């Protein structure tokens, strides 16, 4: 189906190359003269968006791999050092992390479009099967990438998911041991996953080439589901599809950029900002949102082996769609019953995604089993029966007639609403699951200077927060990822390099060994990191009643709480990402007398906002405890606000640079989208 190539280079060098390797003619026939159905809508743009996202993930992944250390002792820290110390490392990290979610958003839209318009039907069976293979490879790649930061959810997600293979009779335990590289998830596991995560995107790229090849052999499907008959039914790929895809890609980039620059952790899990700890299991282990429907299917089956089979079958059944649905009419636009069942199926998938984020108990398990049956029934019962009994509407005589009919707009609106509902329920489910973990009361939303698209840190507040940390918190809590030189970085507390050096000199830092082989203490330097108050974790536990005080570097991103529907939807648009500072402030001021019926363990204190309410740390702040030089109120309320803001800076030291660059990128993309839109209208004026 590639178009006839008229490529005839005039340059002698290009002509010499073309005679020996006609790659120019191949590109011209495949991406310039290639005949494209003229009635394609914007849902077809997601094929180009997926190609773009694959390139983005490979490029950012290769650069990140140059700085990543695949070792259990250093992986978590290496990721943080990428964000903090590598030039624009924070940008690479956020692009790659959020890019995985964008990739799956695009692929789910691409797949649902294929289901709705029957793109799996003859002669495109191989094209569809290759797409399913790409999807399976994406799922494997995404899972392994989620493990690499080696946070709490990474470690325990790897433990739970790899353990599923033990359900396979006879060989299951051997497979698990092979994946782990031992008898528990550890360093060999991380090395295996890093190697495969680096390799698989290139395998995906290879299968994508086959996918595109199969597309050019069979030709593109279209909303009408009829094959092109005359030249009036098609337009050249360039400039028509090129400029249309370009406009759609830029619009998608605007959506992508919103997450990168304004809510980079919105789709992530707060627990993954806590270093992996095999001794502490998270209260509620959930995979990334794009695996939730299949996770719900897995948990809905009482048998472990049955759940694993059902989970994989839910994906593999997609490959058999060309034979399960034998109706000659492709597009659901002309199949009234198929259209209705399609939207029911979409609702089932959304429901499974919501249930996958809920605790596996009570009504959630029952609902999961019902929707699992409905999921498989759609493929194994509904589609085969509809193929035989459904009375379809008359098809248009040609693609040109379909264009003149001006049809095909309603599914776009319906799909957009369905996708919005999917995101709402799935993300809402995640928040509900967090609430079910036994969290304390919901902290009040505070007013922070760094909130919103133009928010900046209050340098005076950061300096006061640093003073509170130094005089109160530093006796127990470390700041392992903050160096003294960072105090003079742009967007920070606003110290000069000389002031940062003077501040560092007030600390004693262990160094060595010297020429005699002995360790010694010296005055701190700007390049040094804040020294820890205890030599090791055991010493920290012994000094604090058995509970080791956590490092505070990432505390503002490692703590979260429930934001119920619809507030968490508004959070996306208002760029709310201050859960951590709100929680820290509430925790520091949330000590109270325990209720009469509450059993408080010995050596613990009652805190309204701490999960379980029993906390080992005594009330750390009291009025008049720290003297401010700028005349700010010397109250516990003020101390807690200041130190919470300071800890937000330690967790997000590039926050101001991120928002500033984000504004520039967003303005550029909006202008570019406008130019492409009017260019597209001019080019397509005659085609419509």
UniProtKB/TrEMBL annotation:
It holds the Pfam family Cytochrome_B. PROSITE patterns: CYTB_CTER, CYTB_NTER, CYTC. Binds 2 heme groups non-covalently. Binds 1 heme c group covalently per subunit. Its main location: membrane. The chain crosses the membrane at residues 42-69, 90-111, 126-148, 160-183, 195-215, 246-263, 305-324, 336-357, 363-386, 661-679. GO terms for biological process: respiratory electron transport chain. It is found in: Membrane. Residues 13-224 form the Cytochrome b/b6 N-terminal region profile domain. InterPro entries: Cyt_b/b6_C (IPR005798), Cyt_b/b6_C_sf (IPR036150), Cyt_b/b6_N (IPR005797), Cyt_c-like_dom (IPR009056), Cyt_c-like_dom_sf (IPR036909), Cyt_c1 (IPR002326), Cyt_c1_TM_anchor_C (IPR021157), Cytb/b6-like_sf (IPR027387). One of its GO terms (cellular component) is membrane. Heme c binds at residues 473, 476-477, 617. Residues 227-397 form the Cytochrome b/b6 C-terminal region profile domain. It is a multi-pass membrane protein. One of its GO terms (molecular function) is quinol-cytochrome-c reductase activity. Belongs to the cytochrome c family. Component of the ubiquinol-cytochrome c reductase complex (complex III or cytochrome b-c1 complex), which is a respiratory chain that generates an electrochemical potential coupled to ATP synthesis. The main subunits of complex b-c1 are: cytochrome b, cytochrome c1 and the Rieske protein. This is Cytochrome b. It comes from Afipia carboxidovorans (strain ATCC 49405 / DSM 1227 / KCTC 32145 / OM5) (Oligotropha carboxidovorans). The lineage of its organism: Bacteria, Pseudomonadati, Pseudomonadota, Alphaproteobacteria, Hyphomicrobiales.
